[in-house]
Design brief:
The structure is a single chain. With about 375 residues, the chain is an alpha/beta fold. Strands 3, 4, 5, 8, 9, 16 and 17 form a seven-stranded mixed sheet that branches. Strands 12-11-10-13-14-15 form a six-stranded parallel sheet, sandwiched between helices. The protein has a two-stranded antiparallel ribbon with strand order 1-2. The chain is globular, with a radius of gyration of 20 Å. The protein starts with a strand and ends with a strand. Bound molecules: zinc ion (ZN).
Length: about 375
């Protein structure tokens, strides 16, 4: 039996162990993918250390397990019923697993699957372990199997380490799609300079959003994001002490913004989110993709009076991923802003807490087998 190197977590909070495990064999409608780059998202360290205490309803795979969320690689062996992928194809693997047979899946709402699960990360339902059992390999190894419908071809012009960033870019893209963010619109991105916020900025520029307002802490990084499109981006430092709503209204004739994309992470106070929601115009939409963990007081009467929509959104579908791949090929999505930090699989533990490398969203940490 062929074996390969894999990093496995045996106990939460402990370092991963490097071990030899069998190379998986694809079932007829699955594909064996040779991993070329696996993204390390900022939240990974939370998942590996605190997740079960923070969010007990979001189960991890049974340990020991191979983690690794965002995989870009090459098709090594398609299953014998796979019709549209060939050996050697360059692909991104969307890690969103779904059962295919629950009411949501049958209605083609696969992200609402009762057992929706991120391969190599965590799940959303009590039966997520069934998905982990079917697809036990995340990206921190040399080969993984994935359902054929989760693969997204990537253009030759997109490097593997760039495609390994598709997860948070796709998450941001899906939020902008749900917000109908395009020409003529003004959006506010809360948490502008982080991994999600920068992804949202790049996608918004690519989708032709007219004006992007962004809030974050670090003034140096705010200036760097603004420099991507100085005529279309305006920024506010969080500690400037201004009312976010008043600041946003000063750009929109007093009306407020069309959409808020909230990218603040789990450790951020909930009132930071709500302050941004107050910047919406009547009928505006807030899309929450950052995952603030604190229970947050919402002004639901004001939201009703003003016809405000608040949408929780996580991840994206393969059509969104295909759209960002096409935008990258057309250079309307600029992936050149990232600074890649490539960490060999053998040094995986050095990469897990990506915060040590982080220059906000500009840093892209990838594990390279
Ligand atoms: Zn399902």
């Amino acid at each position: 039996m062929a074996t390969m190197l894999a990093a496995r977590l045996h106990k939460t909070g402990e370092p991963m162990k490097l071990e030899q495990v069998p190379v998986p064999v694809p079932r007829p409608t699955d594909v064996l993918v040779q991993v070329k780059a696996c993204g390390v998202v900022p939240n990974l360290i939370n998942v590996l250390t605190h997740w079960q205490s923070w969010f007990p309803e979001l189960p991890l795979p049974k340990l020991p397990a191979i983690f690794g969320l965002d995989v870009a690689g090459v098709v090594a062996a398609p299953g014998d019923q796979v019709q549209n992928f060939r050996k050697g194809d360059r692909v991104y693997v969307n890690p969103g697993l779904f059962c295919g047979s629950c009411p949501a899946c049958r209605a083609d709402e696969v992200q609402n699957c009762t057992n929706y699960t991120f391969s190599g990360y965590f799940g959303f339902g009590p039966d997520s372990q069934k998905q982990f059992d079917s697809y036990p390999y995340g990206g921190m190894c040399e080969y993984m199997i994935a359902p054929q419908h989760n693969l997204v071809p990537i253009p030759d012009s997109v490097a593997f380490e760039e495609a390994a960033r598709f997860g948070y870019i796709g998450t941001a893209y899906a939020a902008l799609r749900k917000a109908s963010a395009g020409p003529g619109k003004t959006i506010l991105i809360n948490g502008l300079t982080g991994t999600l916020g920068l992804g949202a900025t790049l996608c918004a520029l690519g989708r032709g959003v007219t004006r992007i307002l962004g809030i974050a802490r670090d003034r140096g990084r705010l200036a760097r994001v603004k420099a991507l499109a100085p005529d279309r981006i305006a920024t506010l430092a969080q500690d400037e002490g201004k009312s976010v709503a008043e600041w946003a209204r000063s750009f929109t004739g007093g009306h407020g913004v069309d959409a808020v994309i909230d990218c603040l992470g789990p450790g951020t106070p909930g009132n930071f989110l709500m302050e941004a929601v107050y910047a919406l115009r009547r009928g505006g939409k807030a899309i929450n993709i950052g995952g603030v963990g604190e229970k947050t007081v919402m002004d639901i009467h004001w939201m009703m009076d003003n016809q405000i929509e608040f949408i929780g959104s996580n991840w994206f579908d393969v059509a969104d991923a295909a759209a960002i791949a096409a935008m990258a090929a057309a250079k309307t999505l600029d992936l050149s802003v990232f600074q890649h930090i490539r960490v060999p699989l053998k040094e995986v533990n050095r990469a897990l807490d990506g915060s040590q490398f982080r220059d906000g969203g500009f840093t892209n940490v990838v594990i390279v087998p």
